[in-house]
Structure formats: C-alpha cells, structure tokens
C-alpha cells in the first residue's frame, strides 16, 4: 500500500500546524496555518514566530523554555493579533522534536477557539433560518387559500353589479388580494433549485457594481479588492446577482448621504466548515460599508422576513438573499458596529446537490 504524502495529510487538517527551528524561525506551515496568518509559506519561510502575530510574547517565552527542558506544553485561550489588526483566540500546543536527546525543532499546533464559536453561530443561524422558512410556508398556505376564495367571490360579485361605481369596490378587493398574494410569494423567495453553471464571481460582482453605480450615481463610491486567483464556482448567476444586489442596495440605503464607501472583496478559504459541512475550498465575499451600522437589537434578526431598520423598508431583501445563498450550500453572516458593517457571503466551490 502506498504511503500517504505527509504534506498532503497536514494540509487537510483544520488545525494550524507550524514547525520552528531553534531560533523560532518558520520552517514549515500547513494550509490551515497559511489561512490563519494570511501568509503563504513561501512568503513566510525563515521569519520569526513573533513576526507572525502580535501578542505572542508569552508563548515565545514558553517556546524558549520548551527548547531548554524538552517538555511539551499547552496554553489555553491565547490572544493573538494577526496582520490587519485582526484579533483571534487560540489554544496553542508546543511539542519538542527531539534529535539525539536534543530539541532541534518545535511543532506548534494552533486551534482557533473563536472558530468553534463561529461554527456554532452558523449552525444556529441555519437552524433559525430553516424554522423561519417552515413557518412562512405554513403561513403562506393558510393565507393564500382564503385569499383565492376572496378574490373569486369579488370577481363574481363584480359581474352582478351594473354600475361601474360599485364595481370599483370589487376591483379594490381584487387588487389588494393580488398584492397580498405577491407579498407572500416574495416572502417565500424562489422555489426553483439553482442552475448549475460555471461562474466567475468577479463577473457577478462587476454586474452588480455597474447596476448600483447607475442607480446611485456619484453618491456612493464602490471600491474593489478582488483575488484574481479564485477559480470558477458552480451555481446560478441570476440568483447570485440578486443576492449580492439585495445586500449592496441595502448598504447604499444605509449610507444615505454622499461620501459613503462600499468595498467588495473576495478571498478563498481552505478547509472551511459551513454549518455541519466541511468544504475544501470556499469563496468568501465581503461587502463592507462605512455607514452608521445596524442597531444592536436588530443584528440577530436581520435575516428574518419583515425585519427592517428603515421606515420605508419591507424587510425582505436580506431574507431572500439568505435563501438564494443557502440554495448554493452557502451562508451569509453579518458583523456591524458604528462606521463599519460587513456582510460576508460564503459559497462552496464544489457543486452542492442538496
């Protein structure tokens, strides 16, 4: 039986693995570590561990002790500040690699604790979304049946009225019944499964950018930060355009005044878990704006239908966007504070037949 390639095995781990020499310089890192530090091994080879992350003073001291004593150790809930001032919390295990009774290298495993919290949050979001969809479907059934009877009765009644003045009342009933039926249909979102075509995510973003720029004129500046190495994904272009368009339009409306900036950025995430399923490659699309932020009391509810922070909003845009991305096996997340709101779309690169 063929022996598996150790590098391939390590690259399929979700735990970030780093190997350091006696001077705590980088000798190896797997793909999970590259994602954690936002740095490729080719770029990072030979740099000191303290250069990978700020706040690593305590763990560097522990590594130096490990080199002297040859004893492994673990530090829980270590706070690190990654490039771009991105804070993370990790459990760190340092194991000496012995050669002739001397520690020559250190094996460092970094397990992101806040990643587990993210996975739990995603599972909660998916469960709540599924429950919400089920409730809406049941409610739609209960509403549309009597609406159909009401509309039919109004049509029959209209035929009995000789006077156009009286017929206007039955026409109002018919129009309002149709409006309510259309509203229910919009709450349900698309019912057809997505088409599986090869897509370029940046072509979708550029189409949305052009549409929004034409609508908003010079009031909003849209910046791009694309990763050109992202491969094609499989999905339905029309549905993904609609999902992204709903979110970007929301951002434009939230900015309100001229001078607002929306940034579209794309990256690839490796060995990434969405809900219960792990994916080898995931496209991460961040839609960031510098608006006032979403009120804290709404942040847990914004993907529910009919939830909106605007007096003139109907609360369906984000709910429908979440449905469209879910149909592609993905998920939309949101973080918000005054001055920065980020909607993150996560889309697996492989076909999801579910």
Can you walk me through this structure?
This protein has 354 residues and is α+β, with helices and mostly antiparallel strands. The protein folds into three domains: 8-112, Beta-Lactamase; 117-188; 197-348, Histidine kinase-like ATPase, C-terminal domain (Heat Shock Protein 90). Helix content is 43%, strand content 29%. It has helices at 6-11, 31-37, 41-44, 49-52, 57-69, 113-160, 164-188, 201-216, 237-255, 317-326; strands spanning 16-21, 26-29, 73-82, 86-99, 102-112, 197-199, 220-225, 233-235, 260-274, 277-289, 331-337, 340-348. Helix 6 (113-160) runs antiparallel to helix 7. The radius of gyration is 26 Å and the shape is elongated. The chain starts with 5 loop residues before the first helix and ends in a 6-residue tail after the last strand. The model has no long low-confidence stretch (mean pLDDT 81).
- Quickly name the level 1 CATH class of the largest domain: Alpha Beta
Strand order of the largest sheet: 2-1-5-4-3
**Strand percentage, roughly?**
25-35%
Low-confidence sequence ranges: none
Q: Mind describing the biggest β-sheet?
A: 5 strands, antiparallel
H/E series: HEEHHHHEEEHHEHEEHEEHEE
Radius of gyration: 26 Å
Label the structural class. alpha+beta
Strands, count:
12
The CATH superfamily name of the largest domain is Histidine kinase-like ATPase, C-terminal domain
Number of helices, where a helix is a run of at least 4 consecutive DSSP H or I residues: 10
């Amino acid at each position: 039986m063929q022996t598996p390639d150790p590098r391939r095995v390590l690259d399929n781990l979700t735990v970030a693995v780093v190997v350091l020499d006696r001077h705590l310089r980088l000798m190896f890192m797997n793909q999970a570590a590259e994602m954690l530090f936002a740095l490729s091994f080719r770029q990072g080879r030979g740099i000191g561990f303290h250069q990978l992350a700020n706040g690593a003073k305590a763990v560097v001291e522990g590594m130096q002790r490990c080199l002297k004593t040859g004893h492994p150790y673990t530090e829980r809930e270590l706070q690190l500040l990654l490039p771009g001032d991105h804070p993370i919390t990790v459990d760190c295990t340092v194991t000496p690699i012995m050669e002739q009774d001397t520690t020559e290298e250190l094996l460092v495993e970094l397990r992101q604790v806040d990643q587990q919290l993210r996975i739990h949050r995603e599972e909660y979001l998916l469960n709540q979304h599924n429950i919400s969809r089920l409730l809406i479907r049941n409610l739609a059934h209960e509403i549309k049946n009597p609406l159909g009877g009401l509309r039919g009765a109004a049509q029959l009644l209209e035929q009995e009225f000789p006077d156009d003045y009286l017929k206007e009342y039955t026409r109002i009933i018919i129009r309002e019944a149709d409006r309510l039926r259309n509203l229910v249909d919009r709450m349900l979102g698309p019912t057809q499964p997505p088409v599986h075509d090869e897509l370029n995510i940046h072509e979708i973003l550029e189409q949305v950018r052009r549409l929004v720029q034409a609508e908003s004129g010079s009031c909003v500046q849209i910046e791009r930060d694309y990763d050109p190495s992202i491969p094609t994904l499989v999905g339905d272009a029309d549905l993904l355009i609609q999902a992204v368009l709903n979110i970007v339009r929301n951002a434009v409306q939230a900015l309100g005044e001229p001078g607002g900036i929306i940034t579209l950025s794309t990256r690839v995430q490796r060995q990434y878990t969405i809900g219960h399923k792990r994916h080898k490659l995931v496209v991460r699309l961040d839609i960031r704006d510098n608006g006032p932020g979403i009120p804290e009391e709404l942040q847990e509810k914004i993907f529910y239908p009919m939830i909106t922070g605007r007096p003139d909003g109907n609360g369906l845009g984000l709910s429908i966007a979440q449905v469209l991305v879910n149909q592609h096996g993905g998920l939309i997340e949101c973080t918000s504070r005054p001055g920065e709101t980020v909607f993150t779309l996560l889309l697996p690169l492989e076909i999801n037949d579910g």
